[in-house]
Specification:
two-stranded antiparallel sheet; 324 residues; TIM Barrel; 11 helices; ten-stranded mixed β-sheet
Amino acid sequence: MSSFPSMRPRRLRGVPILREMVQETRLSARDFVYPLFVTHGRNVQVEIAPMPGIYQLSLDRLLPEIATVVDLGIPAVLLFGIPRSKDAEGSEAYDANGIIQEAVRVIKQAAPELLVITDVCLCDYTDHGHCGIINDGAVDNDRSLDLLARTALCQAEAGSDMVAPSAMMDGQVAAIRSALDGASYTDTPIMSYSAKYASAFYGPFRVAAGSTPGFGDRKGYQIDPPNGNEALREIEMDIAEGADIVMVKPALAYLDVISRAKQAFTTPVAAYNVSGEYAMVKAASQNEWIDGKRATIEILTAIKRAGADLIISYHSKDIAEWLS
């Protein structure tokens, strides 16, 4: 046995309490942001079919959900709106009485300590389902910037703590930063969806938000999945334009991008554990193909281990309860 190595890694694995003490990555409820879908009307609580446990909520039904989020110790929510009506320029997105603006006011009154983040995009509000204005059959990047900036400013005026542009329009962070600063919202941070991929994992979200494109797809403005260097360029550009937090979306299929971003930049990195990732775990768990709790914890731990400083996840309430 003289050649047997003196180092035995198993020594630190045999006792549960010792395994826990030497864990390199730890999850906390404080790591998470919980996405919410808000809609007009009263007494609306419609479960989203491909996302068990996730609902479209009217403002009166939103308040109990907010109370639960606060009680679980989740520090932040990310809001998506379902408008009363849609048009070519997504006008409810930048309406002072739009659904997101109303939701922000309701939440901040009920739970002022909760960080309210608002998604800045037009896809939920346009009748064509794209993230910007359509011109000659294509998304007009530069004409869309003004509306995105107006949306972010309108949300800040309603009380949003942080705006999160997700349209993947070139120059959107600079346009929003300029609009916010020009209206004396210099302290409102921007969390940019900097590395947002043209992913197959968004399908359930599009059911939830009614944001499926009416024609074509979003490959012309979202990142091509095989590309990693391009994502780092996008992140670098957004930081230069004034992004305070950068995001990689989706998370699970792009752990390498999260890791590279964390190593390359000092700006905090968010990761979005998206609807398709959530739906796969829920479906497999409901069919008893996997242990849903163990799989969820493993996935979220991997996202944090890759370098995410905060994780946007539909699992947020579950994980917070399990960790309590």
